[in-house]
Design goal:
This protein is mainly α. 64% of the residues lie in helices and 0% in strands.
Amino acid sequence: MTNLNFSPFGNDTILPPKNWQDEPNTGGSWSIISTCLVTLGLCVWTSLHLNIPEHNGKTHQMWRKAGWLLTGLLAPELVVYVALEQRRAALRLTKEMQAIFKQAPEAKLVESNTLSQAKEKDPSTA
């Protein structure tokens, strides 16, 4: 007699659980897990673009990035949220600075004087 039970995800067969596979003969469990972790870690590491480092040295920056790497591995949505918040803050700051620049005509004068002085020093920039 055939099994006529509805299965929304295909075959209704229950497979026995697999045991831990040793390395020498086949692609073992540890090699698969470690390869996935290394690949995921490298992807997160290269996608992180931290702010300009403080004057505490390169080791401090490396530890900061390692902390964000761990955060990216365990809670990637937190990294995305922080990036979006930084983008919002940057856009807000850009709008504020543009408004200030429009209100202060002397700022335009300072900028035009700076540009004209630069052109006087180096005429090739004109």
